[in-house]
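testing teh design pipeline on a random one, pls ignore if ur not involved
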């Protein structure tokens, strides 16, 4: 959803300006549905023409809950804002503003946030859409910002033509620590950058510039920053330290005045500022006091996007947010800015109290939340499945693309004795397909039944692009231990042989012994078989699939092996199971019919399973919901429970276990409905 003001997006004839038309066409070409709204129309429809932040929130809430599924995922506000929308300062300000929301914070007092607009489902602080703002005061500034985004996304990654590609560089900048017991917390400035550097894959080149460590004078550090950006370029610029609206640190490591020296128009970084106030964009435009975030985006050079705060916060919270952001971008392969920042904020919220909610609400994205960072690595393989096969262990995965959305050259498979242990590559040549059979001694033993040690191998997969660069590895997965059963009773038999007459007497007694053994064995067999028949009859009555005979079940999972296994199990037992590979397919399915059970994997291509289940609560409130996940995360679990998820299924799992849980859940629901009189 793109929301702007008619003075920024349309000409006097009512035709869209080029920046708006171009951005819409670009996003639609990527497969997104795009809806463009004039803020004045939103005021007319949702607040009787009165300019109010509530009108924008009500519009987004309505769209989220009532529009054709899937619900809108990204919100881009194109326009500046002010904390004085009624012009109480009597500035005669005629800027075409979009609203923002005033909130109170512990350290700064009153400040502004855009997160409030997209936080409407439940009482939690987790945003329900990804929101960003391009703080343009006029159409010309909007065109500059959008053209930077379009150039960034449509230019091929330079890593394929330049071994020293700028996309491989990360610029880490830190404020200094002052002397004294009151300033011990300032040691976190350097530590935050070291935490970020530890998240980087080997291909990335960290450039470090710390005041008081690498540079004694701030002027030299400023020169290092501008020279690095102008000559080397950087994918991300990460700053940790003190800050104010227009400046990094009281020594002015970087300020709005220094931005005129930047010429990096073709190598635009994503600026991250773990500081205070550098994103406070709400001073009236006529004051000519833009924040650092605004100045970086309004320049032809500077930045393509920024994550900067409108408030003040502690280094404790900043350190969690900063590390989580780098981890989700580089280790979890979340490259779109909106989802990456949202994931980092969820990590922050999971590790703090209400104060951390203020931090999450005041660190804002200035940029397009749908924009993907130009991380110079192939994407991480998805849908990894590990299963035992005769002669070894088969590992399967889905094909992925490189950083320019071209096919990768191949894949590597790694193996370890533990999920978090040291992994060793087991393929000698690059794998060009999407499966591999491990027939080595470890693989063969892993498919045997010789004991728990033999079943303890974990496998991970990486993708390799045409430059030989390797993606991050998928999480280690171990093949499930099969259940070996025997319904056969082995009884002693007899054999016929020849013997001399002298041995006849002995043979007679042996024959008698055999006959007696047969008789006793027959009696023993009867004693066993009859109860067993009764048990079998009881088992037939207790078959959990009996509870699912008239139940409609939907499974959403991108793992083909899981879909095939469960699909076959349901079909063999005469039960209904609708299969979907993505959340989007699942949303189409729930539009077509009502389901009694909805099962979704957490990690899905596109929309994740949690967001999908959140949407099902609107149209399928009575359905029993299950979430499949290989990741134990208390915050995700608590959010899922809040959304009405009844049960969690941890990978790897046995089909039998899942079916038993489904049957039990249906029985419990039937009892609850009976009590409620439904």
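output:
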């Amino acid at each position: 959803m793109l929301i702007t003001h008619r003075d920024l997006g349309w000409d006097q004839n009512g035709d869209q300006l080029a920046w708006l038309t171009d951005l819409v066409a670009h996003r639609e070409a990527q497969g997104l549905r795009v809806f463009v709204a004039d803020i004045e129309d939103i005021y007319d429809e949702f607040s009787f023409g009165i300019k109010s932040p509530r009108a924008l929130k009500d519009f987004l809430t309505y769209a989220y809950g009532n529009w054709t599924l899937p619900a809108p995922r990204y919100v881009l506000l194109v326009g500046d804002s002010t904390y004085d929308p009624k012009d109480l300062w009597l500035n005669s300000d005629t800027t075409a503003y979009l609203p923002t929301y005033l909130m109170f914070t512990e350290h700064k007092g009153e400040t502004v946030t855009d997160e409030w607009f997209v936080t409407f489902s439940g009482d939690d602080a987790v945003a329900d859409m990804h929101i960003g703002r391009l703080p343009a005061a006029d159409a010309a500034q909007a065109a500059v910002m959008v053209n930077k985004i379009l150039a960034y996304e449509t230019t091929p990654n330079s890593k394929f033509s330049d071994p020293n590609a700028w996309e491989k560089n990360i610029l880490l900048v830190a404020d200094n620590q002052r002397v004294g017991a009151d300033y011990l917390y300032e040691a976190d400035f350097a530590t935050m950058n070291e935490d970020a550097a530890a998240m980087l894959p080997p291909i990335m080149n960290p450039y470090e510039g710390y005041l008081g460590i690498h540079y004694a004078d701030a002027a030299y550090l400023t020169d290092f920053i501008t020279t690095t950006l102008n000559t080397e370029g950087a994918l991300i610029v990460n700053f940790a330290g003190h800050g104010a609206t227009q400046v990094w640190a009281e020594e002015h490591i970087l300020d709005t005045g220094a931005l005129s020296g930047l010429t990096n128009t073709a190598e635009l970084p994503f600026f991250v500022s773990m500081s205070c106030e550098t994103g406070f964009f709400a001073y009236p435009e006529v004051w000519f006091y833009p924040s650092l975030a605004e100045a970086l985006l309004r320049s032809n050079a500077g930045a393509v996007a920024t994550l900067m705060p409108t408030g003040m916060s502690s280094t404790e919270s900043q350190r969690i947010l900063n590390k989580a952001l780098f981890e989700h971008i580089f280790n979890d392969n979340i490259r779109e800015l909106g989802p990456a920042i949202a994931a980092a904020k969820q990590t922050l919220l999971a590790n703090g109290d209400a104060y951390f909610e203020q931090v999450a609400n005041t660190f804002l994205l200035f940029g397009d939340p749908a924009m993907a960072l130009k991380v110079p690595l192939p994407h991480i393989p998805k849908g990894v499945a590990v299963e035992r096969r005769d002669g070894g262990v088969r590992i399967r995965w889905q094909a992925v693309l490189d950083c320019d959305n071209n096919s990768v050259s191949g894949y590597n498979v790694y193996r370890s004795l533990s999920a978090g242990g040291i992994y060793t590559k087991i393929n000698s040549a690059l794998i060009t397909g999407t499966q591999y059979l491990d027939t080595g001694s470890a693989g063969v033993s892993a498919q045997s039944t010789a004991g728990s040690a033999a079943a303890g191998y974990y496998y991970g997969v990486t993708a390799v692009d045409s430059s030989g660069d390797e993606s991050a590895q998928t999480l280690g997965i171990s093949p499930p231990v099969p259940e070996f059963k025997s319904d056969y009773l082995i009884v002693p038999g007899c054999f016929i042989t020849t013997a001399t007459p002298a041995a006849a007497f002995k043979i007679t007694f042996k024959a008698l012994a055999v006959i007696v053994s047969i008789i006793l064995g027959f009696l023993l067999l009867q004693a066993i078989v009859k109860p067993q028949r009764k048990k079998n009859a009881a088992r037939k009555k207790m078959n959990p699939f009996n509870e699912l005979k008239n139940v409609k079940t939907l499974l959403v999972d991108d793992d083909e092996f899981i879909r095939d296994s469960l699909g076959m199990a349901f079909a063999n037992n005469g039960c209904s199971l609708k299969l979907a590979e993505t959340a989007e397919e699942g949303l189409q399915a729930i539009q077509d019919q009502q389901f009694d059970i909805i099962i979704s994997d957490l990690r899905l291509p596109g929309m994740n399973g949690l967001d999908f289940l959140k949407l099902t609560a609107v149209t399928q409130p009575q359905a029993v919901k299950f979430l499949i996940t290989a990741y134990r995360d208390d915050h995700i679990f608590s959010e899922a429970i809040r959304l009405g998820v009844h049960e969690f299924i941890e990978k790897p799992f046995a089909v039998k276990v899942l079916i038993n849980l489904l049957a039990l859940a249906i029985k419990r629901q039937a009892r609850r409905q009976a009590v409620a009189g439904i």
